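TA notes, week 10

Several of you asked for a full example with nothing omitted. So below is the full record: structure tokens for the whole chain, then the designed sequence directly under it. When grading your own attempts, check the secondary structure regions first.
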């Protein structure tokens, strides 16, 4: 073997061995500079603007359309003028309810972060903070899931099936049915 190649190979193997014993970098590296450690700036923005952030995934992926996406797909869903007005009102209501709750949640996370940053956290303060944050998370999620429950009542069965197809949840719309929603067995 060529002496230069041999030396290079030894250096490469030595370097690889040294790097494999280095301290692994945390998945959190770089997040220590966030204003609120538990929330990315994008998360904060989404909470402050009432966006869903996947909170209604249980509804969305089980046949309960969401008002934001229904409005985006309104033409393809062939929404009637009445359905469009109802969906717009539902979306506005959802946003109106989600924004103050999201704002409160961001503030509660900010307070928890400040308690840790100032080293004034105690088990009692931690418990109180987590209870507040958990309750707010549940309320924000409920706003979004309730909007999905209300939206499915606005759409026909065929529109709900088309929505699922357009969103990529099923290959093609099923045959017509008299069922209106996943839980409602009579058409409205």
């Amino acid at each position: 073997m060529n002496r230069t190649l041999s030396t290079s190979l030894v250096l490469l193997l030595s370097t690889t061995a040294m790097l494999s014993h280095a301290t692994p970098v945390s998945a959190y590296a770089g997040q220590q500079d966030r204003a609120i450690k538990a929330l990315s700036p994008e998360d904060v923005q989404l909470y402050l603007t009432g966006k869903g952030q996947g909170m209604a995934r249980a509804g969305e992926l089980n046949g309960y359309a969401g008002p934001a996406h229904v409005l985006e797909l309104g033409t393809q869903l062939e929404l009637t003028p009445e359905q469009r007005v109802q969906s717009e009102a539902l979306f506005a209501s959802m946003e109106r309810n989600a924004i103050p709750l999201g704002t409160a949640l961001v503030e509660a996370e900010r307070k928890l972060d400040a308690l840790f940053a100032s080293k004034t956290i105690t088990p009692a303060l931690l418990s109180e903070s987590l209870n507040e944050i958990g309750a707010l998370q549940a309320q924000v999620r409920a706003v979004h899931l309730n909007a999905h429950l209300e939206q499915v009542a606005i759409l026909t069965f065929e529109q709900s099936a088309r929505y699922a197809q357009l969103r990529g949840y099923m290959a093609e719309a099923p045959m017509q049915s008299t069922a209106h929603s996943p839980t409602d067995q009579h058409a409205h």
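The chain has one domain: 41-188. Use that as a sanity check on your answer.
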